[in-house]
Amino acid sequence: MRKIALLLLLLAPVLPAQSPSKKTLGLQPSGAAERVVARPNRAAPDGSRASEKVAAVLNDWHNAAAVADEARYFGHFTPDGVFMGTDATERWTATEFRAWAKPHFKGKTAWAFTPHHRFIFFSPDGAIAWFDEMLDTPNMGPCRGSGVLQRIGGVWKIAQYNLSVPIPNALVKDVVKQIAAAGK
User: Fold this and answer.
1) Distance CA 50, CA 113 (A)
2) Cα(112)–Cα(121) distance, rounded to whole angstroms?
3) pTM
4) What is the pLDDT along the chain (184 residues), one digit of tens a residue?
């Protein structure tokens, strides 16, 4: 019995929670009330409400794009932040990404991604958070975002964000063929 208890203690940081704590966080990306359910599988070591703070940063970041607030959107990145888009060529520093995205922020909305089903984790010292989230998008359909945040001077900043389009396993062979054909 002691061996099982010890094993569970050792694996607790990497095993998903059996019944995740649901914390509903408000989000209004495009005027309509939306909800994001954050499921913190590993609480911040200091017992703080860090998962809510990280979720609030991500929610505000998505909202800034939805209302085309360029300064607010890019203000959420670390100075050496990286954004990886859906295309294999899209690995940008925050500065490069801002230059690419600038025309999109000229209108009323840059893009409107509505996050849901977000999972947030923390390093043992509570200085790094990583997450994954599902996104509803008007132009690409369902997407997934994942990334890393760093707490700098008590403020959570996005160090890396990776946007992807999940492909159903049944379609992978066809998609791989299309990618290969596009590369010729």
Assistant:
1) 23
2) 25
3) 0.76
4) 343 333 233 333 333 332 223 232 333 333 333 344 444 455 566 656 889 999 999 999 999 999 999 999 999 999 999 999 999 999 999 999 999 999 999 999 999 999 999 999 999 999 999 999 999 999 999 999 999 999 999 999 999 999 999 999 999 999 999 999 988 7
Q: Look at the domain 18-182 and name its fold.
A: Nuclear Transport Factor 2; Chain: A, (3.10.450)
What string of H, E and C letters represents the secondary structure of the chain? Answer: CHHHHHHHHHHCCCCCCCCCCCEEEEECCCCCCEEEEEEECCCCCCCCCHHHHHHHHHHHHHHHHHCCCHHHHHHCEEEEEEEECCCCCCEEEHHHHHHHHHHHHHCCCCCCCEEEEEEEEECCCCCEEEEEEEEEECCCEEEEEEEEEEEECCEEEEEEEEEECCCCHHHHHHHHHHHHHHCC
Are 105 and 73 contacting, i.e. CB atoms less than 8 angstroms apart? yes
Domain boundaries, the chain: 18-182
Q: Which residue is it, tokens 């043992």? A: 124
